[in-house]
User: Which sequence fits this backbone?
């Protein structure tokens, strides 16, 4: 295969580091294994972040997400681990990862994890008439 799963997240310099703006990424093909049964769990991941000096490179993010396919993980643990790895790689001003898992046994699970730099406050939204 030309590409293999990888836990390496690559970054590139934020082209507008002086401005707060939001990057939103939807990843509809996330999968991991249930640590209790070994059955596959499927989810859509929604990443929103306000970059500081670095942005995550999308191909590396795709390969990173792919690397969980054969790993057993509880929904809560894997969501927080992914956010921790993203924060470590790019140190964003703010990041939120929402993992919406497909139904399993009649139950839907959504896990939301957030990170905020201690010195960062979001700008006041503009209210237009």
Assistant:
């Amino acid at each position: 295969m030309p590409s293999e799963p990888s836990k390496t997240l690559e970054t590139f310099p934020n082209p507008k580091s002086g401005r707060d703006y939001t990057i939103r990424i939807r990843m509809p093909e996330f999968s991991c294994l249930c640590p209790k049964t070994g059955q596959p769990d499927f989810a859509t991941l929604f990443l929103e972040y306000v970059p500081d000096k670095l942005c995550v490179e999308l191909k590396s993010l795709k390969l990173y997400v792919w690397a969980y396919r054969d790993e057993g993980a509880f929904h809560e643990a894997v969501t927080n681990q992914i956010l921790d790895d993203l924060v470590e790689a790019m140190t964003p001003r703010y990041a939120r990862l929402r993992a919406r898992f497909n139904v399993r046994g009649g139950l839907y699970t959504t896990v939301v994890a957030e990170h905020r730099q201690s010195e960062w406050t979001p700008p006041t939204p503009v209210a237009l008439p």
